[in-house]
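Let us practice reading a record.
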Amino acid sequence: MKKRINKTLAFLLLLVTMGCLFSVPVSALAAEDVIQFQSTSNQDGKFIMPVRIGVSGTVAAKLIDSNNTVIDSFQTLSVSFGTVITYSRSFAGTKTGVYYLDVHFTYPTGEEGFTRRLKINHTAPSAKLTFTETYQTYTDSGDAKQAFKFDYFNAKGKKISFQIYDQYGNLIAKNGLVAKNVNGKCFYNWSYYPSAGGLMVESGVYILKYWVEGQPPKQMNFEVNLAEG
């Protein structure tokens, strides 16, 4: 009988101890207990930011820059103990700099919770402009023109410039555009007339200089044949 009572008391003591372990007072929790940042990674062109939440509640998050300007907000979620929220964002076209993921937790009772900040050091990949091909074509009215095709990368918002020189180094024509996308294709059509006005150029070898903002110019020679024009 005595052994049975001792076993019962031991079992009750175990239940009380376990209850203490799983009912940690709110006041005893720290921000690191509630909002736990996991290892970040890059996947399929996106920056992955997983966050584990240590207790049940509501979680809101936003991405801000070094000037505390919000550049992205994420959906507010109600989560349970142990939930891992995987925040992700493409940084393509985003300027080099320091960014922060601010995660705010609120208890179900509405009691003020915690905010933690994840620092993100982002280095934007260099812009690139690649020549594809050039050829002579004609407008609908029959006027000849030289068409140039290019591919650009990591260039959203950057200016792309074109300059044409004669074989003596004299600037003949120039033009430019601003890239609308991160990656894409662009075209430059030259009518064989100087940008400043005047007569059509003669057949011969010319030089095209081309570059994307922030990168040094590249150049190539091309031949103009207006004999059939």
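A brief commentary: The chain has a mean pLDDT of 88.
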